[in-house]
């Protein structure tokens, strides 16, 4: 510890949050959002998961290195490291699984436009495309091929009715305000606007909450 | 391999989150800093107090390596004060959440500000911490405010560090009794808020001060009712919207200037 560290400790204006904590906060928030939102949210573009994955990999290597050491002192540190590693991996796993569940449910919808495809990560896109191709081939070989050719499509929109199932963007969600902001909500009898304060918890439709969440003024809870 | 759970966090997931809350421990043994994925842990030097995540604090507690200093809001006097506020002063709303951590204002030395507004976004790019990463369950947290994960943290402290809670001056049983009362009072409020849901015409409902577990408890019901009201009222709403659109553009412009006033 040198003089800078000491100064940093006592200086209240120096409030930088360490990168690791920042990542954990962001991972937790992304996970809660993905678990709560009715639709698939964009894959974080800021390299969060690349960073997390390489950190996890490094930590696993460290665990392997430490397992040989039977000194009781490092042994306890090992328990702590492994516990934390499992907790961290649970978050990542649950996040990815929640996304796969959404992709499985509305595969064609997320593949339908470029804008929606951009929400998927590279791996997810490969998975969704392949999954859909397998499914379509299976349908074709089992029953679709005996239909007239003009009825064989799975994404027909010509008759005015869309065959592609979409998530319900109007479902209600809970959000917590991170900053003071104006919240606007559409209702059955009337539309409502009020200026919410930081840490207010509000129930509203996802479509109304989305801009606030995207702007970072609110988070899903 | 896809997750078979409905949208919204379950009880188990909420409890998992609560274990990330920082609590204050009083170490009984030295422990060097450990490099974790969530950052380095501070080195433990008895008898210096240190803030650690709850899961780690419980691990240390079980191994008798540390005691946990319960947060001030868990003090019986603080709990009874909150109960009084919840029943007498504000019988319909939840009590206030803890104020955001004070932040020093670099432009005005010596003056700390709480919270942020839209107009001072100069520190953009920095993530805003929220529960469970705010230090709302440490020994420095303010008394008289229930943090977001109050019930989960209180329950696990009572279950695994009952002797430390008892050091507050009341037996763990007494604290447990007060918590039970608080749960009852607040559950009644949650239930009565559903009558507000019946006429959920406005599209917004605020539940300021509600806790994570309480939300998880009634999430399915509340969201179900809100969605149900929306679906049954879908045609009324569409008709109303059409009508409003017909009323012309003037209203729209008025609406926009109102919004600006709101900010």
From TrEMBL, chain A:
The GINS complex plays an essential role in the initiation of DNA replication. Has a role in chromosome segregation. PANTHER family: DNA REPLICATION COMPLEX GINS PROTEIN SLD5 (PTHR21206:SF0), SLD5 PROTEIN (PTHR21206). The lineage of its organism: Eukaryota, Fungi, Dikarya, Ascomycota, Pezizomycotina. One of its GO terms (biological process) is chromosome segregation. One of its GO terms (cellular component) is GINS complex. Residues 167-221 form the DNA replication complex GINS protein SLD5 C-terminal domain. Component of the GINS complex which is a heterotetramer of SLD5, PSF1, PSF2 and PSF3. Transmembrane segments: none annotated. Pfam families: Sld5, SLD5_C. The keyword Secreted does not apply. Belongs to the GINS4/SLD5 family. The keyword Nucleus applies. Gene3D superfamilies: 1.20.58.1030, 3.40.5.60. Residues 62-141 form the GINS subunit domain. Keywords: Chromosome partition, DNA replication, Nucleus. It is found in: Nucleus. This is DNA replication complex GINS protein SLD5. Its main location: nucleus. It comes from the Eukaryota. SUPFAM superfamilies: GINS helical bundle-like (SSF158573).
Automatic annotation (TrEMBL), chain B:
Its main location: nucleus. Keywords: Chromosome partition, DNA replication, Nucleus. CDD domains: GINS_A_psf2 (cd11712), GINS_B_Psf2 (cd21694). One of its GO terms (cellular component) is GINS complex. Belongs to the GINS2/PSF2 family. Component of the GINS complex. PANTHER family: DNA REPLICATION COMPLEX GINS PROTEIN PSF2. This is DNA replication complex GINS protein PSF2. It comes from Achaetomium macrosporum.
